[in-house]
Amino acid sequence: MTDPEKLTYERAAARIARITAALGGMGTAVALAGWGWRAGAGFLIGSLLSGVQFLWLKGLVDGLGSGKRRGGSLRMALRFLVLAGAAYVIFRLIPVNPAAVLAGIFVLTAAVFAEVIFEIVYARK
Fold it and tell me: How many domains does the chain have?
């Protein structure tokens, strides 16, 4: 019998990325089927923004352990400006449902909660 896999940061990050993608795809399909293309497109855009934010945060966490100084504060501020600019363009120029965009942005939060539940259940075994 082999040892159970250990709970590591790398595995957790990979699971969160997969859960984010799965929730984004399923949520887009549900929004598209239930509320039309504007809601589906809005949820897709929100979940894509959520995924980009996850990649940025993962890069920040990975950089913390490397010991390199890479201008983290300025880079993080610029990232939030990019997200604010994207939100402006989405809400002003693209005819999507703003509530669906907001729901899509919370896909990462749901994925993190799912990972926490997974680790609690997995740690009990």
Answer: 1
